[in-house]
Amino acid sequence: MENLKLDYSDFVQLLEFATLDTSLNVKDFRVLCYVYFNDNFTQQKLSKDLKISSLGVVISSLKKLEKLEYIEKVSKHTKKIKNVSSYNYLVLTKNLNVHKNHNNSINSYFKDTSSLYNYFFELIPTSKKIAYFENYKAVDLLLNYDKFTFEQIKT
Description:
Layout: H1 8-20, H2 26-37, H3 43-49, H4 55-67, E1 71-75, E2 87-91, H5 111-122, H6 132-144, H7 150-154
Antiparallel strand pairs: 1-2
Helix pairs in contact: 2-4, 5-6
């Protein structure tokens, strides 16, 4: 299975999200670009090409990118062979408009919604589990359908 190449505009939009994403560091960003441009690679080859001395850093970057849904790890269903990867990594674009990291939706429709959600539900410590989608949708409805302003809700 070959890595699916994105349109140039989709890739630029993905890079824009990634540059504004505060949870990614420079090495994660470099790994994301490497995954896009290389179809088939091993973690050792990635480490060597990017001149990252620790294989653990490469693995943690791949896991972080997978967790944030920038990439997807797909099994090739092959036996383990030395110097051959048993996984393909694909760049995802299904969440380009509202990406997993909601803090980075600058200049978007959900900017105020993200700000209010972060203000009320992430900055206030609690021992209860917070239902993300219900509360995010409630804040969105208040802002966009009930036409309350950002400051009215905050006060």
